[in-house]
């Protein structure tokens, strides 16, 4: 902990000018490790369908939707908005620049166009004419849709927004069977029909063979004519039958031809730029009810199941093999979080064997049969997620968590002794009994005492909430400053106490820390993970973990596609301001940390629901990293939402050759966010006023609520 104090020495001062003094570290230590800039992917909201996967159809397996009514209502409302966007002029679109969809239940992306679920049609499919079919029929591996044709035309359709900005050709397949006689085809049609049972204008079609009474898989391809659609314009994908037959449809897959092994090319391209060193999966809360064997083997034999954590459905289209493929595509190391909720130690060990076992082991042979004879060699494994919380499947108390970790870790290490393990810790030990989830404030202590010989790293989630426990009369900006103080409280009080406890109970064992979910949670109209406030909190959190880099083994935000994250609305890929900060900080991997002395005013923050009170919080935080090429990068964070700060930066290494290579700032109202129609309004931009160089010092003014990044050369 002494290293953190040396790396950021804070001296309170009443004078308004902030004075920063920089110096190379006398004991440089190891470079900053990239694992601090990792990420996290969970089956939540539009993370899988409508996110990383290229599959365009929601609920392709015709399953029960498992959605509460309010979620259905929002999906329909967002669909009505999407239906109109391509029809709007610039002035009308400008009225929607602040609109963006909320995070929703899983399996349906961010919107749907049709909802006939009350007529027993699987969401979001529809059948025309109405009443000529139904869902819930026995299918091949799950439910099927039944269509009946009586000498006329019957259509099963779903509205989609194809990514025509990059691809006009599409391909897929359908599982179906039939009796009687007829014709069948798949089509793209515009959604310009007038009457209730009318069909839209045709765009493309592909004839299929009328199937037998046995289930058959038929492939198809479709091409949208060039310039036939406007940006954002939705179309219908249709399965159309004519004749006098009956057809059962089990599942339909539709992808753009430029799909990269089942993943969205736009997403893969951006993830390769972000390059998270570690990618955590499958949860999150989802992990506590996930059984890995549901997501392995032939994709067409995997069953769709309810998502036990978030509502909606899990098609199991992104299982272990697909996750490993994704990690390899983007250059990330996988971190798998095993089910410590309703799972077992035997199941966790089996998962390790599936990933790392040789082909002559039971689960290693299963992996080989699934087309992957070489072991994956997954190094990082986490045992459970937030199992202290009543929101978790199989939640438990402190002693039981320690017992489970001891048992799970032993079974997993018996399969592969080389794996690195992370245990489930709890931030609520830092609170008082009234606010602690585990009540007795002994969660981490129990783990340290009774977690067994395989305990080496403890996870904590830095997830302050923005809507509970603040003093009456607190404004948004008061809440903003209090939330930012959460990081200072952790760095100067809570984490030192945890490290001291670990050293007392496990002397010489060097217990590490994984902050594998971080970000401000809560109401979207307040400072939170998805707006500018989330980016500023993220910079402070990353400053902290960099200063604690010897103890913090990895860190990741909460998460890649559901909070402070990448977002997709139909074909539009955009991202929250926090992603800008994380990407900027990822450049520090391999750099050398300099010492910072900061003289600045301070403020006090009262207790709230997720943090104790803390006093003497510096209004400005700073970090300085020297890159291998010699450039010095400095980040200044202004926590004051109202006042700019005048800053002087000095260093004995600054001389006559000093130059400012770049000076950029991310700033703005704390609740400002990027949206589908204003995707780039919160980002790093050049400083409005130049940085002044005067001898061995720099002078600049940093904006309120801001993250300012400087690159200096000639230091």
Write the layout of secondary structure elements.
Layout lengths: L1 H6 E5 L5 E7 L14 E2 L7 H5 L16 H17 L4 H5 L31 E3 L4 E6 L4 E6 L4 E8 L8 E11 L2 E9 L11 E7 L7 E8 L11 E9 L2 E11 L8 H10 L3 E4 L23 E2 L6 E2 L5 H11 L2 E6 L6 H12 L5 H8 L10 E4 L14 H18 L4 E5 L18 H8 L6 E6 L13 H30 L6 E7 L13 H16 L4 E4 L10 E4 L2 E4 L1 H10 L5 E9 L1 E4 L8 E5 L1 E7 L5 E7 L6 E6 L8 E9 L17 E2 L5 E3 L2 E6 L3 E8 L2
Parallel strand pairs: 1-25, 2-30, 3-14, 14-17, 17-18, 18-19, 19-20, 20-21, 21-22
Antiparallel strand pairs: 2-25, 4-7, 5-6, 6-13, 7-12, 8-11, 8-13, 9-10, 9-12, 15-16, 23-24, 25-28, 26-27, 28-29, 29-35, 30-34, 31-32, 31-35, 33-34
Helix pairs in contact: 7-8, 7-9, 9-10, 10-11, 11-12, 12-13
Instruction: Determine the number of helices (DSSP H or I, runs of at least 4 residues).
Output: 13
User: What is the H level of CATH, i.e. the homologous superfamily of the domain at 113-256?
Assistant: Galactose-binding domain-like
CATH level 3 topology of the domain at 113-256: Jelly Rolls
Identify low-pLDDT runs.
Answer: none
Look at the structure and give the CATH class of the domain at 113-256.
Mainly Beta
Q: What spatial form do the alpha-carbon principal axes imply? A: globular
Distance between the termini: 28 Å
Radius of gyration of CA atoms, rounded to a whole number: 27 Å
- The percentage helix is 10-25%
């Amino acid at each position: 902990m002494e290293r953190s104090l040396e790396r950021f020495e804070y001296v309170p001062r009443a004078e308004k000018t902030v004075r920063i003094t920089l110096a190379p570290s006398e004991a440089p230590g190891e470079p900053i490790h990239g694992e601090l800039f990792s990420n996290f992917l969970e089956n939540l909201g539009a993370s899988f369908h409508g996110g990383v996967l290229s599959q365009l159809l929601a609920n392709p397996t015709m399953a029960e939707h498992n959605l509460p009514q309010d979620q259905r209502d929002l999906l329909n409302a967002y669909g009505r908005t999407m239906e109109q966007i391509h029809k709007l002029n610039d002035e009308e679109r400008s009225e929607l620049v602040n609109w963006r969809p909320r995070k929703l239940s899983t399996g349906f992306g961010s919107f749907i166009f049709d909802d006939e679920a009350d007529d027993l049609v699987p969401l979001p499919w529809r059948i025309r004419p109405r009443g000529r079919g139904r869902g819930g029929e026995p299918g091949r591996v799950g439910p099927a849709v039944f269509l009946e044709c009586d000498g006329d035309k019957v259509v099963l359709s779903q509205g989609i927004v194809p990514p025509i900005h990059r691809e006009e050709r599409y391909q897929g397949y359908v599982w179906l069977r039939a009796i009687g006689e007829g014709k069948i085809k798949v089509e793209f049609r515009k959604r310009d029909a007038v009457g209730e049972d009318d069909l839209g204008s045709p765009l493309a079609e592909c004839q299929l063979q009328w199937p037998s009474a046995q289930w058959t898989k038929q492939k198809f391809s479709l091409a949208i004519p060039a310039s036939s659609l406007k940006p954002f314009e939705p179309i219908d994908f249709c399965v159309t039958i004519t004749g006098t037959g009956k057809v059962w449809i089990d599942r339909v897959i539709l992808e753009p031809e430029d799909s990269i092994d089942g993943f969205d090319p736009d997403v893969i391209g951006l993830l390769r730029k972000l390059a998270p060193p570690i990618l955590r999966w499958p949860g999150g809360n989802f992990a506590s009810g996930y059984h890995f064997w549901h997501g392995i083997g032939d994709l067409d034999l995997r069953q769709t199941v309810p998502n036990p954590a978030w509502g909606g459905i899990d098609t199991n289209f992104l299982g272990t093999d697909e996750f490993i493929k994704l990690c390899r595509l983007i250059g990330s190391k996988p971190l798998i979080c095993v089910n410590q909720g309703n799972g077992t130690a035997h199941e966790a060990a089996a998962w390790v064997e599936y990933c790392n076992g040789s082909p002559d082991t039971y689960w290693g042979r299963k992996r080989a049969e699934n087309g992957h004879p070489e072991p994956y060699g997954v190094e990082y494994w986490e045992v459970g997620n937030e199992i202290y919380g009543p929101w978790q499947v199989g939640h438990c108390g402190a002693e039981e968590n320690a017992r489970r970790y001891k048992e799970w870790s032993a079974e997993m290490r018996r399969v592969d002794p080389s794996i690195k393990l992370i245990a489930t810790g709890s931030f609520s030990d830092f609170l008082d009994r009234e606010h602690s989830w585990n009540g007795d404030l002994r969660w981490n202590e129990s783990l340290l005492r009774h977690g067994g010989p395989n305990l080496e790293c403890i996870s904590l989630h830095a997830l302050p909430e923005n809507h509970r426990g603040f003093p009456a009369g607190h404004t948004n900006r008061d809440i903003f400053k209090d939330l930012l103080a959460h990081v200072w409280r952790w760095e100067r009080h809570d984490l030192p106490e945890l490290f001291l406890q670990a050293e007392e109970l496990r002397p010489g064992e060097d217990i590490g820390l994984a902050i594998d979910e971080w970000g401000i949670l809560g109401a979207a109209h307040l400072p939170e993970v998805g707006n500018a406030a989330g980016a500023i909190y993220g910079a402070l959190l990353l400053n902290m973990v960099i200063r604690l880099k010897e103890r913090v083994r990895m860190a990741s935000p909460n998460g890649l596609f559901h909070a402070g994250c990448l977002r997709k609305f139909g074909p539009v890929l955009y991202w929250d301001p926090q992603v800008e900060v994380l990407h900027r900080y990822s450049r520090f991997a391999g750099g050398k940390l300099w010492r910072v002395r900061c003289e600045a005013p301070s403020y006090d923050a009262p207790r709230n629901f997720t943090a104790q009170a803390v006093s003497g919080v510096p209004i400005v935080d700073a970090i300085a990293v020297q890159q291998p090429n010699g450039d010095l990068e400095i980040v200044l964070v202004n926590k004051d939402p109202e006042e700019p700060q005048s800053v002087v930066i000095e260093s004995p290494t600054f001389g006559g050759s000093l130059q400012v290579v770049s000076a950029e700032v991310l700033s703005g109202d704390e609740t400002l966010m990027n949206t589908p129609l204003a995707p780039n309004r919160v980002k790093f931009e050049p400083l409005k006023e130049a940085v002044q160089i005067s001898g061995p010092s720099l002078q600049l003014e940093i904006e309120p609520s801001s993250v300012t990044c400087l690159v200096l050369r000639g230091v």
